[in-house]
């Protein structure tokens, strides 16, 4: 029987390329660890004993003061909300100074637009001041007048426009900190007189009632 020589194995020493690969991997690990350390240093704000202030480019944020509560009524004086008194409600301040009833026509040259359809006008003079930092709306059609019999009427927008003439009061928003004085006309049955007003910025907002008697 023929005998075979035992198998032999050849050992090849690592090539230079493999050594370079191992060296590159080690170098990468060292660099990565160093970068992580720098990242942690930056996030942490640098050394704790660094006295140098760090300026920021962020602009300061102005915080507006809270607006007055729309449910709070503030009286400026000893009397209740009545003719001649000043009352604040929400962001608006009101002062009703005069009421003229039995007015047969408002405006100059207004024609039928300045004439009442129910009998006569009750024209109320008042001032409205905007206490907020933004423009506020106050229109005649959102104001409610109550007669001495308890009947309820809304202000007449067309008659109010002609009653105020060129001043155009209550036709445009009232600017911040601005006071507007004008008239509101109510179209009432002949002989009727207003007993109180319910004033508000919009139809959906809260209101304050001012006595006219």
From TrEMBL:
Segments traversing the membrane: 20-43
Positions of the DUF4352 domain: 83-202
Pfam family, one: DUF4352
InterPro entries linked: DUF4352, Immunoprotect_excell_Ig-like
KW Membrane (keyword) present: yes
Keywords: Membrane, Signal, Transmembrane, Transmembrane helix
Protein name per its UniProtKB record: DUF4352 domain-containing protein
Organism from which the protein derives: Cryptosporangium minutisporangium
């Amino acid at each position: 029987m023929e005998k075979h020589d035992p198998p032999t194995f050849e050992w090849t020493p690592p090539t230079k390329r493999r050594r370079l690969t191992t060296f590159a991997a080690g170098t990468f690990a060292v660099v990565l660890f160093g970068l992580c350390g720098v990242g942690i240093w930056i996030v942490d704000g640098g050394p704790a004993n660094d006295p140098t202030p760090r300026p920021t480019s962020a602009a300061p944020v102005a915080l507006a003061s809270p607006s007055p509560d729309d449910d709070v009524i503030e009286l400026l004086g000893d009397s209740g909300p009545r003719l001649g008194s000043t009352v604040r409600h929400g962001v608006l301040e009101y002062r009703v100074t005069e009421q003229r009833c039995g007015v047969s026509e408002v405006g100059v040259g207004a024609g039928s637009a300045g004439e009442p359809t129910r009998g006569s006008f009750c024209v109320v003079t008042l001032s409205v001041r905007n206490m907020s930092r933004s423009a506020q709306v106050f229109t005649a059609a959102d104001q409610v007048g109550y007669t001495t019999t308890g009947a309820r009427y809304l202000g007449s927008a067309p008659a109010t426009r002609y009653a105020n003439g060129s001043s155009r009061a209550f036709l445009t928003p009232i600017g911040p900190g601005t006071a507007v004085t004008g008239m509101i006309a109510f179209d009432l049955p002949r002989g009727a007189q207003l007993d109180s007003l319910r004033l508000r910025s919009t139809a959906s907002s809260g209101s304050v009632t001012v006595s006219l008697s």
